[in-house]
Amino acid sequence: MSEIKARILTGLRMNFIHPEDLGSALILDLETDEGEERYVLPCNPALSTEEIEAIGDEIMASLDKLIAPSDDEDLDGDEGGEDKA
Q1: What is the dihedral of CA 37, 54, 21, 26, to 10 degrees?
Q2: Exposed, middle or buried: residue 41 (CB in 10 Å: 0-12, 13-18, 19+)?
Q3: Cα(23)–Cα(33) distance, rounded to whole angstroms?
Q4: pTM exceeds 0.90 for this model
């Protein structure tokens, strides 16, 4: 079996497209330590646009909970390090 190449994921953007005469698709834009890549995945045609968008929202919310914050982000979510009193 061949070796699977590992890269460090540094950015992720997820969008859906819903063309009129084609099925919906998930677009994943990945940024890694080696550059950018785009993946297009066809969605299940039995799902409605609303269902697909809701699943996407669930995926992103789960990833936000799962992935550790980057070194550039404040752990408390406060941008700029200033008090907003």
Answers
A1: 10
A2: exposed
A3: 32
A4: no
